[in-house]
Write the structure tokens for this entry.
Amino acid sequence: MKRRTTGTPGQALALAAALCAVLALPGTASAEPGDLPPYRTADDAKPRKGTASSADGPRLAKGGVYTDTLAPGEKKYYSVELDAKSSAWLSAVAQPRTGSKVAFGDGISVVLEDTDGTGCSNEEVTFGADGTARPLAANAGRVIKPDDGCQDAGVYNFSVERESENTSDPSVWPVELRFMQEPPVKGTVPTTPPETGNLPTAAPDPPTGEPEKIKGGTGFNDAVGMDEGVWKDRLRPGETRFYRVPVDWGQRLMLSAEFGTAQTSDENAYASGGVRVDVYNPARGYVGGEGAMYQADDPAAVPFAAAPVDYVNRYSYDGAASQTGVAGWYYVAVHAKAELGDFVKGSVPVTLRTSVTGKAEEGPSYEGDAAEAGFGVTDEDKEQATDGVTADEAKESGDDGLNLLAYGGIGAGTVLLLVLGVWTLTARRRAAPADAVPYPAGAPGPYGTQQYPQQYPGQQPPQGWG
């Protein structure tokens, strides 16, 4: 997990000038002490106002990212144009105000359907228990499968609906929409999913060694790269931090999130489901997650293991396995329940032991660039994971993070300017420092989640799902 140091003094001076320009703009001050940062929307997102009727839903373009809002009980429609050769996924990320009151059944549901009402797939996500507001992501897709529904080229309707109890915060939720389309596959591919019961059950020994510090992002757009190894971060009560791991064809993501002890005002206090880990695929589809009780003077650990990435997994009736049918960046969201603020002083330390098992294999032969569309792993992706940087940080410094300070030709004054600029820009764009003023006591209470597996035409949800 070595950090690379590349660039030129000229690049460093250019970065310093850019940072000065950013700092001179209005509205770039850091967050107030104790405030948790909101979800950071994609920089290239465009506003798009959904409609109450499917008859005139605004068009979403392939590869586009959009923003809208949802009021309690509101349902909005959008339209997309699909060809007859490409699999496609549409996602919605709801962003309730940090610290706002949410109820057990609060959440969003998404549906993709043909214009004649034939359902392609749907998903519903809820908080599962009164308490902590956090970003909620759901996706719906159309996968190419001979003799299945939703295979024709044409216009399809995508809808997003919000459920909200009368006792919940009535504020509108910002929503981020994304339309991802996988390039067509050359020739024919198998459509029979593997038997999930044949997956290996023995987990590899977790990575050991000195942990490297990392600072997770507020969501998918500023998630920080993370490769195999040991990483350490801190979360304030109510905070969710995002990380991303490149997982190639034939590989399997496995990790353990270890939540360490923290200073406390009550050694006997605990929070059921106080800490949680959730994993999403490159199309923001929910792969799975788990929670654990947290007591400040007693460590807690949450393990997670995804199915190996295999193209035919998308045809599985197992909700978790069906979301591991694409290669690319997999996202890890780590959450600390707001209720922890009642007895935790400061923040909760978390150590992430991450493994990517299996040898990378050749994926299907595509007619286009799958990695460019978000479904693949490149050498640059692996470097970003090693460096522990976000996608934007990699772009800003030539995929080399923000590590330009090693050049001896940069004067001390420029170095100081760069450091101060990076600190301020980071405070504006991402979370406040983990050891900042703690989240105020008395924050809203319990936290939970409920996910529904992707459904295809004719598929019935398993017992126990609503």
